[in-house]
């Protein structure tokens, strides 16, 4: 395997500059929307894919806030979902009565987020908002029901490609790309 990272990429869908501009816009919107809330919001990143987005996002939100992580297992190492996800790493913080913003890399079928929302709702959260960096609306299988007065924030609508970079992997590689791209077909193996 060639070790030059960029040489694995067929095409770039969003550059690092485009990503950071959009993240700053979303962060401003969240700052506005939660400014009047009585308690600091809790940002819950979905590991591992959301780690870069979560980091960039919270640095730009001008509010006191907390951060936690969850992990949901839904994909194997390939590009196809294996159905109903399960929670394999639970929250550290108590979320009862909290306004949670679930931070996700990409919404595809919607199964992962629906499962996580149900999980949070059962713990007694006040609201659940979604902040997804990418959305593939044409591939949705389940309707995503927010909790309380939760909102849906998204970065970009993604065409129906399997994308990598900015936290997202193929077989646990490419998460460190600072942009979003599509791999050359020889590397989807
Ligand atoms: P869903 O449960 O909505 O079908 O899938 C959500 C998860 O599948 C995402 O959090 C992400 O980890 C993975 N996923 C969906 N589409 C893509 C994609 O195009 N690229 C990568 N790397 N992961 C994806
Ligand atoms: Mg994910």
Structural write-up:
This protein is an alpha/beta fold. It has one domain: Rossmann fold, CATH 3.40.50.2020. Helices cover 22% and strands 32% of the residues. The strands form 2 sheets. A 6-stranded mixed beta sheet has the order 4-3-2-5-6-7, with helices on both faces. Strands 1-9-8 form a 3-stranded antiparallel beta sheet, covered by helices on one side. It is globular. Belongs to the purine/pyrimidine phosphoribosyltransferase family. One of its GO terms (molecular function) is hypoxanthine phosphoribosyltransferase activity. Its cofactor is Mg(2+).
How helical, in percent, are the residues?
A: 10-25%
| Sheet having the most strands | 6 strands, mixed
Bound molecules: guanosine-5'-monophosphate, magnesium ion
Instruction: Report the sheet-strand fraction.
Output: 25-35%
Question: What topology, given as strand order, has the largest sheet?
Answer: 4-3-2-5-6-7
CATH topology-level fold name: Rossmann fold
Our measurement of the CA-to-CA distance between the termini, rounded to an integer number of angstroms, reads 12 Å
List low-confidence stretches: none
Mean residue pLDDT: 93
By secondary-structure content and strand pairing, the structural class works out as alpha/beta
The count of domains is: 1
* CATH architecture level-2 label: 3-Layer(aba) Sandwich
Mass-distribution shape? globular
Total count of strands = 9
Radius of gyration, whole Å:
16 Å
Question: What is the H/E order?
Answer: EHEHEEEHEEEE
């Amino acid at each position: 395997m060639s070790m030059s990272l960029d040489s694995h990429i067929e095409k770039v869908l969003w550059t690092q500059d485009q990503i950071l501009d959009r993240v700053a816009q979303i962060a401003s919107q969240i700052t506005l929307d939660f400014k009047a809330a009585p308690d600091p919001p809790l940002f819950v990143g979905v590991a591992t894919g959301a780690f870069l987005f979560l980091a960039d996002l919270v640095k730009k939100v001008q509010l006191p806030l907390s951060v936690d992580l969850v992990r949901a297992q839904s994909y194997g190492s390939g590009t196809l979902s294996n159905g109903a996800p399960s929670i394999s790493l639970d929250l550290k913080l108590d979320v009862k009565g909290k306004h949670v913003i679930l931070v996700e890399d990409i919404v595809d079928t919607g199964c992962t987020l629906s499962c996580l929302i149900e999980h949070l709702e059962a713990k007694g959260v006040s609201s659940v908002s979604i902040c997804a960096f990418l959305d593939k609306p044409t591939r949705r299988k389940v309707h995503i029901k927010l909790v309380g007065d939760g909102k849906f924030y998204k970065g970009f609508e993604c065409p129906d490609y399997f994308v990598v970079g900015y936290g997202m992997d193929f077989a646990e590689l490419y998460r460190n790309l600072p942009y979003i791209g599509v791999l050359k077909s020889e590397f989807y193996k």
